[in-house]
Amino acid sequence: ETGVTQSPTHLIKTRGQQVTLRCSSQSGHNTVSWYQQALGQGPQFIFQYYREEENGRGNFPPRFSGLQFPNYSSELNVNALELDDSALYLCASSLDGETSGSNEQFFGPGTRLTVL
Amino acid sequence: AQKITQTQPGMFVQEKEAVTLDCTYDTSDQSYGLFWYKQPSSGEMIFLIYQGSYDEQNATEGRYSLNFQKARKSANLVISASQLGDSAMYFCAMREAPWGGATNKLIFGTGTLLAVQP
Q1: B80 near B63, Cβ under 8 Å?
Q2: If you measure CA to CA, which chain B residue comes closest to A56?
Q3: Which of A36, A95, A106, B75 has the greatest CB tally within 10 Å of its CB?
């Protein structure tokens, strides 16, 4: 069973640039969630994709957008980068549609984005 | 609005001793799930334990147990027989509705940094 993978592991960008982060979900999972974790904070929910459609969004501006592909992998795109976008971006996959249980999210190792 | 509070920014524990990490939550939902995750310095979030709001017994997973007090809205993590490898950041998290059909969104606390001393 392949776990959640993310690429790249580290990234440095400058203000105003655009960035794309990638996530491959765990085998058999149909849902991907993205979180932003600023230094010293807990992760904050950005949005979730279920079967290629956005299925919930946190308090993030529209310049944060995403995609989910038929193989359930996902991308997070951030336009017009700001200094405050510097953070660890975590992707988590799960199998939604279950009727009981923890419906646990499995996290990837994250992408550390630095905006200069 | 849902909220998770972790009041201990940092904790020290001696190796082989037990430690309790505090977590309180606020929600108006009747159905929710509570999680604990471990985050080592590498950054990956590692699932430790889960408690559903309707579960009558406290969850246990090996050396981890969750002290769930629903009336007090607390979900403390107890780690027994601490090991050096337990040194990490620990996050409490909550999700509304413990089953599918709702957005599988987790709300995290600010975390507790645990240091296990030899």
Answers
A1: yes
A2: B103
A3: B75
**Is the distance from CB of B45 to CB of B91 less than 8 angstroms?**
yes
DSSP chain B: --EEE---SEEEEETTS-EEE--EEE-S-SSEEEEEEEE-TT---EEEEEEETT-SS--EETTEEEEEETTTTEEEEEE-S--GGG-EEEEEEEEESSSTTS----EE---EEEEEE-
For residue A88, the tally of other CB atoms under 10 A from its CB is 20
User: Shortest CA distance to B79 belongs to which of B88, B55, A43, A104?
Assistant: B88
CB contact (8 A) between residue B110 and residue A102: no
Judged on CB neighbours under 10 Å (0-12, 13-18, 19+), B36 is buried
Residue showing tokens 């946190």: A58
pLDDT tens digits along B51-106: 999 888 999 999 999 999 999 999 999 999 999 999 999 999 998 754 444 567 89
